[in-house]
Amino acid sequence: MADVFAPEKRAEVMSRIRGRDTGPELALRSMLHRLGYRFTVNGPKNKSLPGKPDIVLPKYRTVIFVHGCFWHGHEHCPAFRIPGSRTEWWTAKISGNRARDVRNEKALLVMGWHVVTIWECALKTASAREWLTRRIPGFLS
Prior knowledge:
Elements: H1 7-15, H2 23-34, H3 44-48, E1 55-57, E2 62-67, H4 87-110, E3 114-119, H5 126-140
Parallel strand pairs: 2-3
Antiparallel strand pairs: 1-2
């Protein structure tokens, strides 16, 4: 199946995909702050740790990654589906992202950090956010 956009338009669309301060990240940061947790987002630890975690909670020696369901291949999630065009390329891309995530998590664990991954779909609806809010203290203890 051919792309529905011309190459120039596709480049424009893809350039608008944000890597930081995404909606799910902002929702999680707001949730953590309301619960009384203090964290860094752009601190020196964030940049120097493997994978550049989205949120670092130094007091708890915990890092949090907020993964987009599509970009990180969240299995069994309705938000994840390999596109119909350039299937091989997308499969390799998402497999590479998953492999990198595993490498980063292993490196962080070796360094003594607790790693938490929050999927985008866990922040989409009010009921999902409520569920996550109840479980956050268990993730950080």
